[in-house]
Write a structure and sequence with these properties.
Blueprint lengths: L1 E12 L10 E16 L4 E2 L6 H14 L5 E7 L9 H16 L5 H16 L5 H8 L2 E5 L6 E7 L2 E7 L6 E6 L6 H14 L1 H22 L3 H17 L5 H10 L5 E5 L6 E5 L3 H10 L3 E6 L6 E2 L1
Parallel strand pairs: 3-4
Antiparallel strand pairs: 1-2, 1-12, 2-4, 2-5, 5-7, 6-7, 8-10, 8-11, 9-10
Helix pairs in contact: 1-2, 1-3, 2-3, 2-4, 3-4, 5-6, 6-7
Bound molecules: (R)-mevalonate.
(R)-mevalonate binds next to helix 4 and helix 5.
């Protein structure tokens, strides 16, 4: 039997634009998904109970790496699925890691690569940001150019993403979950259509890429005020692209006066927003009063591990 776990993630800056090859920043958080893989008399996923949210990711992960005798897979998650906190990446990464460990083949770059393939197959268009940060942990900076602290690179459909290790300061982030399950694929497709039809949408994507680069400087200088302002601008651009919703906007609005900055995180359309703050309790209370579910998370966590 093998037990693995992989962390959830938050995108600080650059979601959606990263699908077009623009820079983006993501951090791993202290909410994890655990996977238990054990030899079995028949193939089972979560005791055969069909878990629609995870089943296809687990199945696709098994298809990538498992040719042997039957195995049973069980998952236990701290993460709401469709919440923007990387539950699908964590389930793919933890399952791949467990199966690869059973075969004595646990290697992070390979797990990240196959995780990206699984996400692309199940979700449609994707970038490697979610699966790479869940594999590596800590923080990552994704760029179309090769830089310092390079971890691995991935190419798909003529686009290359270089993934770099990012040192992140200890941060407390308040997540505000709207309770709205928002699948990523349709939102990514909607943005793609907007970008191919409108110049302003392409310009918004370009500006989001610049914001991520500016965010890297702010992080290097531990300048949370500048980082917060960049998060606010990023949220406005994502709203313009149509991936926010009234529930996200209202949680962002109440969190801002108590935070360095606040924005939606992940695909949007529901899911979650994040607020970077020194007063997590006050922000949590404000989010709860507006009907959101506050979750206080911390950065600086390990990536995929065998437990
Ligand atoms: C989802 O967490 C982030 C998106 O940029 C999609 C992706 O990068 O695969 C919206």
């Amino acid at each position: 039997m093998v037990i693995t776990s992989a962390p959830g993630k938050l995108i600080l800056l650059g979601e959606h634009a990263v699908v077009f090859g623009e820079p983006a920043i993501a951090v791993a958080i202290d909410l994890r998904l655990r996977c238990i893989a054990s030899p079995s008399v028949e193939f089972t996923i979560n005791g055969k109970v069909i878990d629609d949210a995870y089943r296809s990711y687990i199945q696709a992960s098994m298809d990538k790496v498992w040719r042997g005798d039957p195995v049973s897979i069980r998952t236990f998650s701290d993460l709401h699925s469709g919440s923007g906190m990387g539950s699908s990446a964590a389930v793919s990464v933890a399952t791949l890691a467990a199966l690869m460990q059973l075969r004595g083949m646990f290697r992070e770059p390979r797990i990240a690569r196959l995780g990206f393939e699984v996400e692309s197959e199940v979700q449609g268009r994707a970038s490697p940001i979610d699966t790479s940060v869940s594999t590596h942990g800590q923080g990552i900076f994704v760029d179309s150019e090769l830089g310092e602290d390079h971890l691995w690179s991935m190419t798909m459909d003529k686009r290359t993403w270089h993934i770099h290790h990012l040192r992140v300061p200890e941060m407390t982030i308040v997540v505000g979950y709207t309770g709205i399950h928002a699948p990523t694929g349709p939102l990514v497709d909607m943005v793609k259509d907007k970008v191919s039809e409108n110049r302003w949408a392409r310009e918004a994507i370009d500006r989001i890429g610049e914001i991520s680069l500016e965010g890297m400087s702010a992080l290097r200088n531990d300048d949370l005020s500048s980082l917060g302002e960049l998060m606010n601008e990023d949220h406005s651009l994502l709203s313009k692209l149509g991936v926010s919703c009234p529930e996200l906007d209202s949680l962002v609005k109440v969190a801002r006066p108590l935070s360095y900055g606040a924005k939606l995180t992940g695909a949007g359309g529901g899911g979650s927003m994040i607020a970077l703050t020194d007063d997590p309790d006050a922000v949590s209370e404000a989010i709860r009063e507006k009907g959101g579910e506050p979750i206080i998370v911390h950065t600086g966590v390990q990536g995929v591990t065998v437990e």
